[in-house]
UniProtKB/TrEMBL annotation:
Full protein name: Pseudouridine synthase
Superkingdom: Eukaryota
Organism of derivation: Catenaria anguillulae PL171
Lineage of source species: Eukaryota, Fungi, Fungi incertae sedis, Blastocladiomycota, Blastocladiomycetes
Listed PANTHER family: MITOCHONDRIAL RNA PSEUDOURIDINE SYNTHASE (PTHR21600), PSEUDOURIDYLATE SYNTHASE RPUSD2 (PTHR21600:SF40)
Cross-referenced Pfam families: PseudoU_synth_2 (PF00849)
GO terms for MF: pseudouridine synthase activity; RNA binding
Amino acid sequence: MSYLNPAPVISIVRDASGAALRRLSPYLYSFNTPVKARWMNRTVLDVVTSEFSRLGNHNVVTRMIREGHVRVSSKFVAPDYKLRGHDRLQTTVVRHDPDILADPIAVVYESNEVVAVDKPPSIPIHANARYVHNTLVSILAEQNPAEYSQLRVIHRLDAMTQGLVILAKTSSSAASLCAALREGNAQKMYFARVVGHLAQDEIHVTDSLDHTLPSRQHKPTQEAATLVRTLWRGHLGNGKYPVSLVQCTRAYHWHPPVPLTHCSPAKNH
């Protein structure tokens, strides 16, 4: 996948509360994928309308094919062209990343092997279905292309979570850090504000994690093992609302670690 020139224009705007937001202009983006087995001998129109429904209906996709926004192996084709095994399907679309906070990304540690940064909230780690340029990896590459253009993601935080993120600069350091996480030689620690007070100062959570999204409910539940420790208790709203600050730590020493499927030595785009 790649974006096409011109690159998006970056601007800083203010929302209603006065917070600074990083905003991108719309840009053209090209998806390039090899033809899958289930697509073979089907027309390009049929495949695109059924597999990429977000692009539009039958009439919209037909126009995209005829105008060259959908191509096969970089060539113009007719809507009734039948895909073959060696083909590559390319679609060009207009994308517009959602706004994110324009908070600076502070580097808290750096060596020849890794860089550790304080990720602000609202920023996803790497490209996904909604974001390409408004991501931590992309912004770091913009700020320092010489050092940060080949960063490898070792672990992730949710977009709305602020916290420490460690990124590897080389494939060898990525492999060793991934191994450390898989083998339980490293811990991830979270601090959370909780509505209410826990019954005990320290609890062990061992319940399995169920998938609530319909698209993921067919997947098996995941084992979990988390140590939750209360650090502070208080009240808000003139004492009406109890709140707590808790520390959550994966308890590797008393439960097998959960496999980390997103940890990879390969470069993340």
